[in-house]
Design goal:
The chain contains twelve helices and eleven strands. The protein is 37% helix and 12% strand.
Length: 380
């Protein structure tokens, strides 16, 4: 492990000699509806609060330990609806699983909220979020809350479908809701605004909240067009209006979306990105794209063993570079994410697992892997 870290540091030093300057334009601050259908380069953010300075972001990050954790959903939930609805919210099971995460050395989580559940039961939804934060805090973990996600189909509350073994995260539910025909529901924007301001306003000074991830992978699959820029800009402005004490971020997930990514960089207090590549590609991304921004960096999605994204190489790199790291998945469950994105093997056990770390009984998928994680995160 120590020789690997030394190699990473050597490569990092060499790479630093060839860094180029990365220039961004700041998003202008204007009033609400001026940008609804503008091209991305003209998109502006309403409200008075602005992006944190790089110095303020650095001060915040200096107060954090090395951040290591996972994207979390309990094993009995097929999607975010099942996680957060009153009938299926499972605090005892969550407490058990976060105890296992604590044993691995994890100290943070990334968790998707669900505006559909909030619409049905706003106060109950907020109570359940508070209960979740209390459980996570008891296990020494702060939580990054994700407000929206642009993937998945039209949401339907109530009982959820049973999982299909071998089908990766089939019933993931994006939000905000689409119309029944799958198009953008622009008439629902006032309700989306209320959701943002109530949720962020409720937890704006809560030390149990690590950061706000405003939109998971904007522009992907559904929620294209207006969402990618117009509604996303609105969400940034509404969140700023709530005056959260925690930093805001939106994760870079497709490096070819240059204009969208420029906008994301211009409004994020801390840099976050998704990468399922091996450590060589990740190091290149860090040096060429993210470090020049001069802000704290978190990788909020990684771990795809089939692609060479593993704990022994990628998490080691992240610790050496002090880049926060949240893998995808903790316990094998109803989301079926131990199977790859494209899988034609039916219910046959995948080898290796794609995501996830633990079996449903808490035992590790790979004993040596779990022990490696514990040692790496225990060593200061």
């Amino acid at each position: 492990m120590h020789s690997g870290v030394s190699i990473f540091r050597l490569v990092r030093a060499i790479s630093a000699l060839v860094l180029t300057t990365f220039t961004l334009t700041s998003a202008a601050q204007t009033q609400a509806d001026a940008y609804c259908d503008m091209p991305a380069g003209q998109t502006v953010v309403p409200g008075g609060a602005r992006q944190w300075t790089a110095r303020k972001a650095a001060r915040w990050y200096a107060e954090q330990p090395f951040l290591a954790g996972c994207n979390y959903i309990p094993r009995n939930a097929v999607n975010q609806l099942e996680m957060w609805q009153e009938e299926t919210f499972s605090p005892d099971l969550i407490d058990q699983e976060l105890g296992w995460a604590e044993e691995l050395g994890f100290n943070c989580l990334r968790v998707f909220l669900q505006s559909t559940v909030w619409k049905t039961d706003p106060e109950g939804f907020l109570r359940r979020v508070d209960r979740f934060l209390e459980i996570a805090d008891r296990h020494g973990m702060k939580t990054m809350l994700v407000l929206f996600a642009g993937s998945g189909g039209v949401n339907n509350s109530g009982p959820q479908p049973e999982p299909v073994p071998g089908c990766h995260n089939r019933y993931f539910c994006g939000s905000p809701d689409l119309r029944p025909d799958g198009t953008e529901d622009t008439d629902a924007y006032p309700q989306v605004e209320r959701f943002v301001k109530q949720v962020v306003g409720t937890f704006r000074c809560d030390d149990r909240v690590l950061a706000w991830d405003l939109w998971n992978e904007p522009g992907w699959k559904n929620h294209r067009g207006v969402t990618a820029y117009g509604l996303l800009a609105k969400v940034v402005g509404w969140t700023r209006d709530a005056r959260p004490r925690q930093p805001l971020t939106i994760g870079i997930w497709n490096t070819d979306l240059n204009v969208l990514n420029e906008f994301i960089f211009s409004v994020s207090d801390i840099v976050s990105f998704h990468s399922y590549s091996d450590h060589f590609k990740v190091l290149s991304e860090l040096d060429e794209r993210y470090k020049p921004l001069g802000r704290p960096i978190l990788c909020t999605e990684y771990l795809a063993r089939n692609f060479g994204s593993r704990f022994d190489n990628v998490l080691t790199l992240f610790k050496a570079e002090r880049v926060g790291a949240l893998c995808w998945g903790l316990v094998d469950g109803k989301t079926c994410t131990k199977w790859p994105w494209s899988w034609d093997g039916g219910a046959r056990e995948p080898d290796p697992w794609f995501h996830d770390v633990l079996h449903p009984d808490g035992s590790p998928y790979d004993v040596r892997e779990a022990e490696f994680v514990r040692r790496l995160l225990r060593d200061k």
